[in-house]
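Pipeline run #58 for the internal structure catalog. This entry was flagged by the ingest filter as a single-chain record with no existing model, so it goes straight to prediction. Upstream metadata was stripped on purpose; only the residue string is passed forward. Reviewer on rotation: M.T. Logging verbosity set to normal.
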Amino acid sequence: MAGNPVIVFASFSPNAGQEGDVEEILRGMVGPTRAEPGNEIYDLYEKTAEGPKTFHLFERYTDADALQAHRDSEHYKAYRAKIPDYLSEPIGVIVLDAVDAAS
């Protein structure tokens, strides 16, 4: 259903010693996802303070249809098939609808 922008926060906790692998996989998603017509933001962050390194994606899509198109893409399917082997816990995904967000 088209309409308002959709925001996604995704968090990744790598297995000990596999932080570089997770970063490589996630960096591989940045270019193809930013090139999607409905993607507005796809930024990768890392947390290194206090405990093990974790990675976080901040994503913004024009609407729910654009998010679904992202999830239907070949690069998304390939990444989702690969990355769980490198994580100590499931991906933490939060999908938000914009209420009052800057454009």
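catalog note: Residues 19-34 form the longest helix (16 residues).
catalog note: The CA atoms of residues 47 and 53 lie 5 Å apart.
status: ready for reviewer M.T.
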